Structures are given as C-alpha cells and as structure tokens.
Amino acid sequence: MNRSNQITLPVAASYVLTALALFIVLKSGLLLALFSGLLVHSLVYLVAPTIARKFNTYQARWIAVALLSALIVAALSALIWAILSFLRSDTGNLSSLLQKLADIIEASRDQMPAWVGDHVPAGVDALRALLTNWLREHAGEAKLVGQEAGHIIVHLLLGMIIGSMVALQDATTHARYLPFAAALHQRAVNLRQIFQKVVFAQVRISLINTFLTALYLTLVLPLAGVHLPFTKSMIAITFIVGLIPVVGNIVSNTVIVIVALSHGLHTAISSLIFMIVIHKLEYFLNARIIGAQVNARSWELLTAILVMETLFGLQGVVAAPVFYAYIKKELRDCGWV
Question: What pLDDT does 250 receive?
C-alpha cells in the first residue's frame, strides 16, 4: 500500500524514535532481550487469538493467555538450559571439540599445500588464541563468562517476560491510541511481523540443513566406513549456528570439513563437496522461504550482514536479517522501494 502522502509529523517522529531505539539496542547489548521478547510475543500472538475466541469473558481470556505465556516462557527457558547443559557435557563439550580440531589440523598439515600450511595455526593453543583474538576483535560485546553471563541470562528472562506481558495486553484488550502512540504501535507491529517471518523461516531452513547434515554424518559416511568423532556435537552446532542466515552454514561446514580431515584428505574433500551442495541449497531456500516472506534476496542479506558486522560486530550479524527486512518493509509500505 502506498502511504507516501500520509507521512504526518507523528508518523515521521515514530520512524526517528524507532531508528534511535534500534541503534541503542545494538550499542547497549540489548539485542538478546529484544529478540527473546519478540519471540515470546510472536508465539503467544499465533496461539492467543484461538484461545481468546473460545472464552467469552475478559477474565477467562486473560487467564488463558497468561497461562499460555507462562508455558511458552518456561518451555523456552528449559530449551536454553538443555542446550547449555549439552554443550557442557562430555558429548557436546566445546573444549574437547576445539582440542580435537587442533589435533586434526596438526596431523593433516603434511597433506596441505605449503602456502596453506603456513597460515594454519599450530596446536590447540594457537587455535584457541586465533579464535579468542577473532572474538575480541569482532564480538567484544559477546562475553559469555562470569558476570556477563549473568547479565545475558537476566536480559533473556526479562525480555521473555516483557514480551509475554505485551502479548497478554494485545490479546485481551483493544486500546485506542492517539496519533503518535498509534504510529509507534504500528512500528512495533511491523517489527514483530518481520521478526516472526524471518526467524520462523530461518528455523525451517536450519532444520532442513541439520537433517541433511545428520544424514551425511550418521548414514552416508558410516556406509562408506567412515565414523567421525563428535557427530552429535556437530549436528547440534549445525542447528544452532544455522539460525544465522548464510553465515551460520559456513561456520558449521568449516567445523565438519576440519573434523573430516581426521580420516584423510579424500574424506575432507568429499565432505567439502557435500557441504557446498548444502550451502547452495541454503541460497535456494533463503530465496524461496525468507525471500518470499520479506522480499529480500540472499545477496541483500549477505550485504546487510557484512555492513552490520563491520558496524556492530557479532550482534550486527545476528540482527542484520531482521533489521534489514524491517527497514525494507517500512520503505515498501511508504511506496519508496
């Protein structure tokens, strides 16, 4: 719908305030809180209307939606706890995986061309230092230990609680807003709709990638007599990092190819070929699933990820698909693109 002639002062002010708010979210490390709140709100929004229609009284609708919100928050908290427990267990221990990757790289150095071997880290300490420096340079705000981990958990829980409270209000009341409040509410609705489309579509893509990767690791390679270590860890990593469009697939593929080196260069090359096919499939899936939802192509998402990573580090990588799709929706609604 073309609204280029309907941009009043309250609407223009709402755009400015929303842009400022999103910038503050990125600069102050509140992206996790924002996304967790949007996730809970989206989940409640999908189910709450059905529940609300089955109850005629306001009190019954309020109780039903409140219970649903509490259930979703509890389920998401349990899922996050399960993932953290898995990554700390012997099966999913990332330290063990890091040690194994370093051993494999060192053992495979003789199979590599000299120009490649000269740029490969020697030993686990060098690999750990390389990863640590990269995280420090590109994601200094992503501190997952000590007090910062406590802040992250608090932000996550508060974001989910706020999201459930907002969803509860939206599902049980029909407020009438003044012009500026109405414009801000529309910005929030647009952001929630885009988040819902992008994230839910990316979950579908990640599930497909994870399923195909699991088939390769647990069926194709064993049939060829190859049994890679840390299979469960690599499958879990594929799903988790696969929630980041395009970039996540590259990260998981790199880990799998390095681990495949433990069974020789031929296994690594065959794994690389298979992962390239999966990576190309993700481009197709992005174009068909996410692109169809938010009218954004893979090259647009990659460009947004590159720019946001340069400006905001790791948080920018995570935020880029949602923020870019949101900006594009607002521009399209105004009839500008």
Answer: 76
H or E stretch at 25:
helix 9-27
End-to-end CA distance of the chain, in Å? 11
Long-range contacts of 127-130 (CB under 8 A, 24+ apart): 127/98, 127/101, 127/102, 128/98, 128/102
Among 240, 244, 262, CA closest to 320:
244
Inside any domain, residue 45: yes
pTM (2 decimals)? 0.72
Residue 154, in any domain of the structure: yes
Which residues in 264-308 belong to E strands, given as ranges? none
From 157, 142, 150, 154, select the one nearest 40 (Cα to Cα). 157
Domain that holds residue 214: 9-333
User: Is residue 208 a contact partner of residue 285, using CB atoms and an 8 Å limit?
Assistant: yes
Number of folded domains in the chain?
1
Cβ burial of 44 (10 Å; 0-12, 13-18, 19+) is buried
Identify the CA nearest to 97 among candidates 248, 237, 243, 244: 237
Distance, CA of 104 to CA of 209 (rounded, Å): 25
Low-confidence ranges of the chain (pLDDT < 70): 1-6, 52, 55-61, 64-65, 83-150, 171-173, 245-247, 282-283, 285-288, 290-293
Q: Look-up: residue for tokens 């501190």?
A: 143
Residue 195 lies in a domain: yes
Q: How far is CA 140 from CA 121, 135, 144, 220, in A?
A: 22, 6, 10, 39
Kindly state whether residue 2 falls inside one of the protein's structural domains: no
